[in-house]
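Backbone shapes recur. Consider a single case.
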Amino acid sequence: METEKIKNEAYQQMGSLNHSIAQARLTSLLSNDERFTPAIELGLDISQLDLSQFAIKAKDELKPDLCCYPNSVGLVSDDVLKMSDMPLLVVEILSPKQTIDDILSKFKAYFALGIKSCWLVMPAIKSIAVYLQFENFKTFGTNDTELVDDVLDIRLPLKKIFR
């Protein structure tokens, strides 16, 4: 039963074409902002946090689809498998087999870890919800020209993400 559960969780986290394209485009756009160093699927060390309160199945690591650190973080001679320093921004991209509730549970943990902003990208409906606190979010979609994150002072053209 446990093996089946693990396989199901791995399947739910598999990306898709839309997931992959959205991840690549967001990474590219955020790379152009010299204030940030984006990282794709980087392990975040969450061992200092009791995850049972968030109903998350991870043990001591979460891997967001994309995260951004200040530009002071860069390539290092001794590579790091799990970052103990938390990023400024975490981006989770909804894939076809994931639920929004799963991602929102992670957002609760991310905010408890001190992450300043979390984005929920929904490629199927061409929308991004920018969370500045767990219950404080704004959704940007097809009627908007740009995504605005006031906490990190980020503005991204939605047409370049969802073209």
Remarks:
- Helices lie at 2-12, 17-31, 100-112, 158-161.
- The chain has one domain: 2-161.
- The two ends are 42 Å apart (CA to CA).
- Confidence is low (pLDDT under 50) at residues 1-12.
